[in-house]
Write a structure and sequence with these properties.
With 645 residues, the protein is mainly beta. Helix content is 13%, strand content 38%. The protein folds into 2 domains: 2-157 and 627-644, no CATH class; 162-548 and 557-619, no CATH class.
């Protein structure tokens, strides 16, 4: 080594070697730096692309709400270019999106496997992001990086089932406000296409104020009594006033068009009742054909019963029309994962398996619990993937008071129970595991007779009074049977000169008339689902409220004119010894009015999955509100985007 260094040529060789080694090392380091920089650039652009894909999902959703699609249509969202400067890199990103609407087969799942499929409208947003040009703010000027990233987002049409409460008008058919009170605790979303009314009254756990745990929206304003209210204490999930309105359809078109099972005929003029008891995926159906009223002569005596019968003459006679119902029975099956539409009145109860949506061209009466096969009563159905029920009426939905059993004519009160039957806040009465929608459109939105035909969720027989039952009377060793006693004592229909007593039940107002001691307080309505209605229906009345003009002494039942106040004081019959008429609370209930307590729970499954063929939620003007479904990053199909851009 030293000999080489002593030579002039040797020194030059080493210098050259070291120069070459230095140059190679420099190039190696430069390559490493460039590779690291390229990796950094790629990672940077990749991460930015993911963020842009996410943000453009909301841009696509908003665009679709404003620009509804027809089936199998594909449209482009205006291309967007965005410059992002990180301080070390400056990149221009190109964003392109395609929107399409198709019908796809959707799997209806269960805990034990696939239960079936249904065709549903699906909106798809495909987005492609790529870097167009860029500048590296360093010694490297690299414009050649081309990162392509794509995503696919499924958007689902919103439905009215997403709201715990949806009302087109928060007023009664008489045009008076219907209030939320202190005992109302609502956990799901609420929307009203009108003002929302509330009062600091009625107890509860929020200092007399109602409690809204989720977002409340209204096209109008909150009308409060008193006027000032603690905003955050009441509206714990948020409040938006003067919000966009939603269209509320008058008919169940989606269900009508897609129902697999239909009962009755759309062209029939007959009045028909379909009484349905569901057991899993089959049902027993009683079909009741209502005949033309028969003219029956009624004699009037004073007094009545009159004994001995042969010794008294009637004061006068009149005729009354008495309808009759002829029942026939059958069974139907294959109800799992089906839409069922009934042309007529539907009376419904049962234990439902699979996805079932029941609809009616008229009113629907709930004649018992609406249960899910895979969920016990008073248990939240959040983990039940197998069963879901929708109930859609083109009239109103009633919690039925009573009916006559078609098989043996016994009186049945299906929806009554004690407050202690279940732990608070639940109670005996009725359990409803369903999304319910009452679409009835009786006329314009103003206080008129037509408003009483608007769709409501409510309870039957809201102004109970006692009526005189049939009796057997012994006279001189003979037994006499007397029926229709109230009709034999006075003229019917009444006249202005001979009005019907305000404290006596009007004939056939009670569906099991005559009834000596009808129920006033009936228990609890337990809902695990959702309610949408054209007007807010009553589920409880004071018994002496100011609804026009229920306590005027006038009887006009279709207009809610139902004589006088509900009377809980016993009053004896003037003729029949020992017979006492008295409206009464069902044993184990409390209160001085009529109707039900509320135990309303939102079925959170409806946020992502709706009942089959349930009415869709569309903003006014046909705009389609959509909710995010599945979102995923996918392999870019550059050719597909080049075809449209």
């Amino acid at each position: 080594m030293f000999s080489i260094l002593r030579k002039e040529n040797g020194n030059l060789s080493i210098v050259m070697l070291m120069a070459v080694m230095g140059m190679v090392s420099g190039l190696t380091m430069s390559g490493l730096v460039l590779r690291d920089f390229r990796n950094y650039s790629y990672d940077y652009e990749q991460q930015q692309s993911i963020h842009l894909l996410r943000s453009d999902a909301y841009r696509g959703q908003n665009f679709l709400v404003q620009n509804p699609l027809t089936l199998n249509q594909v449209i482009t969202i205006p291309e967007k270019k965005l410059v992002i400067d990180s301080g070390k890199l400056r990149r221009t990103f190109r964003i392109r999106s395609l929107l399409s609407k198709t019908q796809e087969s959707t799997i209806i799942g269960s805990d034990t496997g696939i239960q079936g499929t249904t065709m549903t409208d699906v909106f798809r947003l495909k987005t492609l992001v790529n870097t167009a040009v860029g500048n590296a703010l360093s010694n490297f000027n690299d414009n050649s990086t081309q990162v392509f990233t794509a995503s696919s987002l499924q958007l689902n049409q919103s439905s009215l089932a997403e709201f715990m409460y949806f009302s087109d008008q928060d007023t009664s058919p008489a045009g008076n406000p219907v209030y939320f009170y202190g005992q109302d605790v609502i956990e799901g979303k609420i929307h009203s296409n009108s003002d929302i009314y509330m009062k600091q009254a009625g107890g509860g756990s929020n200092n007399g104020w109602p409690t809204f745990l989720n977002l409340v929206t209204t096209t109008g304003n909150i009308i409060s009594t008193p006027q000032s209210y603690p905003l955050e204490q009441v509206f714990q999930g948020g409040l938006i006033e003067e919000y966009s309105g939603y269209d509320f359809p008058a008919t169940a078109e989606t269900l009508r068009n897609n129902a697999r099972i239909r009962l009755g005929s759309p062209n029939s003029n007959r009045e028909v009742i379909y009484m349905v008891t569901v057991d899993g995926s089959s049902a027993e159906v009683y079909t009741g054909e209502i005949s033309e009223p028969l003219r029956v002569a009624v004699d009037v005596w004073n007094p009545y019963p009159n004994l001995p019968v042969e010794d008294s003459d009637s004061l006068y006679s009149y005729f009354v029309g008495v309808p009759d119902t002829t029942w026939t029975s059958t069974t139907i099956g294959n109800l799992r994962n089906a839409g069922i539409f009934v042309y007529g009145d539907l009376w419904l109860k049962g234990n439902f398996a699979g996805y079932q949506t029941w609809g009616s061209s008229r009113d629907i009466s709930l004649i018992g619990d609406i249960k899910l096969r895979g969920t016990n009563l008073n248990v939240n159905p959040i983990n039940n993937r197998a069963d879901m029920v929708g109930i859609v009426s083109e009239g109103s939905i009633y919690v039925k008071y009573a009916y006559m059993n078609p098989s043996d004519s016994t009186r049945i009160h299906p929806n009554v129970g004690s407050n202690s039957d279940y732990p608070e806040p639940a109670g005996g009465g009725i359990f409803i595991y369903a999304a319910m929608c009452a679409l009835g459109d009786g006329g314009p939105s103003n206080p008129s007779d037509a408003n009483f035909e608007h769709g409501v969720f409510t309870f039957e027989y809201q102004h109970p009074h006692g009526s005189t039952p049939a009796v057997n009377v012994m006279f001189q060793g003979e037994q006499y049977y007397f029926d229709w006693i109230d009709l034999h004592r006075r003229r019917f229909p009444p006249t202005q000169a001979q009005p019907w007593p305000a404290t006596l039940d009007y004939p056939w107002y009670n569906p099991v008339w005559p009834e000596r001691d009808p129920y006033t307080e009936r228990g609890t309505i337990n809902i695990f689902g959702a309610v949408a209605q054209r007007r807010r229906g009553f589920v409880h009345r004071s018994g002496n409220d100011n609804e026009y003009p229920s306590n005027s002494g006038v009887w006009n039942i279709p207009l809610d004119m139902c004589g006088g106040p509900v009377v809980l004081t016993p009053f004896p019959d003037p003729v029949i010894g020992g017979l006492v008429l008295q409206a009464r609370r069902y044993p184990g209930t409390t209160g001085s009015g009529t109707g039900y307590r509320k135990n309303y729970n939102f079925d959170k499954r409806f946020l992502n999955t709706q009942p089959l063929f349930y009415p869709e939620a569309r903003l006014a003007g046909g705009k389609e509100p959509l909710t995010h479904g599945s979102w995923s990053v996918v392999l870019p199909d550059i050719g597909e985007f080049n075809r449209y851009f």
